[in-house]
Amino acid sequence: MLFADADDPLGALRWSLAELRRALPGVDFAGDPVVMTLDPGTFVDAQVVMGQSAAPDALLDLSGELLEGIELPSCPEFESWLLVERYRLSAAIEGRMRETAVSLVARGRSADAVAYASKAVAMNPLEQGNHELLVRCLAISGNRPAALRQVAACTDLLRRELGVEASAALLDASEVGPGSIAGPALGGHAAAASQLEAGRAAIVAGAVDAGLQCLRRAVSEAEHCKDPVLRGRALAALGGALVHAVRGRDEEGAIVLHEAILVAEQAGDRSTSVLAHRELGFVEVQAGRRQTAGNWLTKAQELAETDEEHAAILGVLGMNSSDQGDYPAAFEQLGESAESAARCGDRRQQAWSLSLTGRAHLLREEYSQAAAALRESLELVRQERWIAFMPWPQALNAELELYAGHVDAAADGFEQAWVLGCQLNDPCWEGMAGRGLGLLSAGRGDHTGATEWLAQAVSRASREPDRYQWVHAHVLDAASTAALARDDEERARPLVNQLAELAARCEMRELLVRAKLHHARLGDATAADSARLLGAGIDNPALDTLIRKKR
């Protein structure tokens, strides 16, 4: 592949291997296929990034990109691999920086965390969550003036580069300080336990602000009465609420969950540790940081014992596999999750896992299987009166109705999901429902309406810094497809470029293939071959058909 233009490709390979052996003592290249063997004491920087045993300090010294300066335009296979690996490695470094910063803050070393948060900002300056983490590190370390300067710098950057306003969470992060998770304690153990239960009940009932106040009070009361088990559980409940019940608060939630793990491990509270590890894995899956997501979820699996714990962890693992286009793994994990949830009577988890199973079948154009899974999911959601989750299976089911030609039913489903998503102020639900309404308009021949709805969906899906990146990319793909269907290359090109970069950074392989197919439509002569190569390992008949049509 690399020496296809040489007169003697095998000879060129042999010569290059000989030169590598001379240039790199301590490294051996041998075998067929060629395998690299390292002597003790020799390391490769890319392996340091991906390995968990490496000291975080080593990451601060890394700069540039993978194989910087190496380009082989005559070899599209290599170029495709290199593009994806550069984004993947960059995202892995960024994820490790963020994880280290959050861990240091949770351990009371916020001043040390500033360097890692700053590196994350430098690597991906348009990701508001990185700025928020840096602001939080500066504020907690007592340097509020620097935190406010960072807020101002981020606000100007987002306006100039993206034309958007920073979220309220960014300024709020500058208001925190040492010991600011909760206010002063008033009671003892009974008060802490009561506040914890009241907070959980309020969150389930949808009274989020009251619930968060109770949970913060529970943390404070548990610390006051020196009950580490209760404090760990209160921290885990607060962290989970910040992640799931409030949009734009994942950065704060992650810090609280890290602290919950520290407290739970010291107290020997296995179940709380499992919960916090799983929630941190969920945060990373939503953000598309696959390396750190896998680490958290693997640890959660190692600690899990009950059906309820396994069901929840497998659900997040299945979500992660599906996002990456690994459908065999996704179906296995989600199936086991739904079965375990049914055994232990966790109908919400069962509905959640079934909805993701339905999504995977929908993406593979297995409409009958998708309908069966989504029908069961919706029934469970209605039984549970789980209003906060309802728009997700509603939007997926409405898309099935649209493809079946049931336009009125599809319109009802998308409109209900849109209205409820807006009431819940959830950018994920709004993005999915807006995308559906765009598809509906396009099917009716209303191209102006389709453009407006899809633009709205793109804006809504990316509104918060802690957005679900798969939904963001899924909406970008639909908007790109619609623009290209109208031969509107001016509108399509920036959408496709954004999709390609996002899919590569977040290892969403199928969406990266689709971005390559869009690039081919825009005139990129090598993009179709890249799509074929990148799609070779994805088990999706619908994607295979799409690739064949583009040949």
SSE pattern, N- to C-terminal: HEEHHHHHHHHHHHHHHHHHHHHHHHHHH
The secondary structure category is mainly alpha
Gyration radius, in Å: 24 Å
Strand content: under 5%
What is the number of helical segments per DSSP (H or I, 4+ residues)?
Answer: 27
The rounded distance between the terminal residues' Cα atoms is 21 Å
Segments where pLDDT lies below 50 for 5+ residues? none
Give the total of beta strands: 2
Largest sheet: 2 strands, antiparallel
The averaged pLDDT comes out at: 92
Q: Give the oligomeric state.
A: single chain
Strand order of the largest sheet: 1-2
Helix content: over 70%
Topology readout:
Blueprint: H1 9-23, E1 27-30, E2 35-38, H2 45-50, H3 56-60, H4 76-106, H5 110-123, H6 128-140, H7 144-162, H8 168-173, H9 189-205, H10 208-224, H11 228-244, H12 250-267, H13 270-287, H14 290-303, H15 307-323, H16 327-344, H17 347-363, H18 367-384, H19 391-403, H20 407-424, H21 427-443, H22 447-461, H23 469-485, H24 489-505, H25 509-521, H26 527-535, H27 541-549
Antiparallel strand pairs: 1-2
Helix pairs in contact: 4-5, 4-6, 4-12, 4-26, 5-6, 6-7, 9-10, 9-11, 10-11, 11-12, 11-13, 12-13, 13-14, 13-15, 14-15, 15-16, 15-17, 16-17, 17-18, 17-19, 18-19, 19-20, 19-21, 20-21, 21-22, 21-23, 22-23, 23-24, 23-25, 24-25, 25-26, 26-27
Can you give a write-up of this model?
This protein has 551 residues and is mainly alpha-helical. It has helices at 9-23, 45-50, 56-60, 76-106, 110-123, 128-140, 144-162, 168-173, 189-205, 208-224, 228-244, 250-267, 270-287, 290-303, 307-323, 327-344, 347-363, 367-384, 391-403, 407-424, 427-443, 447-461, 469-485, 489-505, 509-521, 527-535, 541-549, and strands at residues 27-30, 35-38. The chain has a two-stranded antiparallel ribbon. α17 (347-363) runs antiparallel to α18.
